[in-house]
Sequence to fold (329 residues):
Amino acid sequence: MTIVKDIQARGMQHCETTALGVLLRHEGLDLSEPMLFGLGSGLSFVYWDSKAMPFPFLGGRVKPFDLTRNLAARLGLTLRVEETTSPGKAWQNVSAPIDAGRPVGLQLDCYHLDYFRSKIHFGGHVVAMYGYDDHNAYLVDTEQQGGAVRTARTSLALARAERGPMTARNRSFTITSPAHPPRWTEQIIPAIRACADAFLTAPIANLGHRGIAKAADRVPKWLLRTDDPQRDLLQAALLMEKGGTGGSLFRALYRDFLGECAELIEDGDLRTGHRLYGEAAALWTDTATLITKAGESGDAAYLEQAGALLHDLSRIEREAMQVLRGLRL
Fold:
């Protein structure tokens, strides 16, 4: 058995920030999950639907791995990324750093992982790997998936090689801190402003605050979009609240990030942004509750109410991001 020493196998709410936390703590940098999410400018929104999809998807964050890239660039970390179509090379890319005493991040499809409770395909899942033996790989996943877990190496290979939406070709990555500890507090305002700018100036109408407005128009028609409301609507609501989002489609994480920042930086606009995202987080939970009720009852009135809340959310989040984009450096 090969195990990296001094690993703090602490699962958090979201998969990518959980993996980043493991890798960064090993490098001597221990930041809260909201701070990791916020410094990586992780908040976003997408209303994703196509004829090829069985049901629409509501996403609340940037694309898989963009958060990691953003965080590494902002903190001056060395991010080494490997991708390959070769199973042998894929294993070498993770075993070599572990043999050298360094944990590795992996992007994969969680469907194949032995410990995963919900068997759904999601190719943007991220875990940290810190050890292996002849049969198993030792991973850190989110708290809800068990934190420190293990899966068969054969299952891990299938998960890493899966092809489909949001997947990557056996992607693995390591992070190395600079010689001097990063001055991460100096990057708070730039991270907030970059996130706000991307949210307000998204190039297509199903992203950012315009995407939330689009969802407000489409969600009331969701019963016409499914032949199994109990399956599709309940799963959509579950993913918003429990699917590794930290609750409220990542808005609770961003609210808490802004709250931490407001304790470090005295700024009225920052406090306003924090207050508005507190309102948004509560409304997203209410929206998920209404979608659940619609799925359970088949009553479109709940979806009409959800649509009204989404219109409010588009306005609130637009206002919050306009304030946050104006923060002074």
Remarks:
- The chain has two domains: 2-30+78-176, 184-325.
- The radius of gyration is 20 Å.
- The chain has a mean pLDDT of 96.
- The beta strands are 2-3, 43-48, 57-61, 78-82, 104-108, 125-132, 136-140, 148-152, 172-176.
